[in-house]
Amino acid sequence: xxxxxxxxxxxxxxxxxxxxxxxxxxxxxxxxxxxxxxxxxxxxxxxxxxxxxxxxxxxxxxxxxxxxxxxxxxxxxxxxxxxxxxxxxxxxxxxxxxxxxxxxx
Length: 105
What we know:
Layout: H1 8-36, H2 41-68, H3 72-82, H4 88-104
C-alpha cells in the first residue's frame, strides 16, 4: 500500500480507484434510491465526496500528464473520458497506469 503514496502516479492510481468506487455507488445505488424509492440520503452523502475526489483526480491527471509528456488528446483525454464512464477508471488503471507505475520503480 505504501507504494501508492510515494509519487504522483501512485496518488493518481489510488484516487482513480476511489473515484471509480464513488461513481459506482452514485450510479447504481444512490440514483436508484433517490428516483425510485424517494430516498436521497446516499446521494446527499456520496455526491459531494465524489465531486471533491473527481476534481482532485482531474488535477492529478493533468499533473501526471505533464510529467509523463502525455498528449492532451492522447492518454490525458482518455483518462478524463474514463472518469465519466462506470468502471472506466479501473480499466485505465489496468491498461495504462499500472504498467507506467511499475516501470517507474
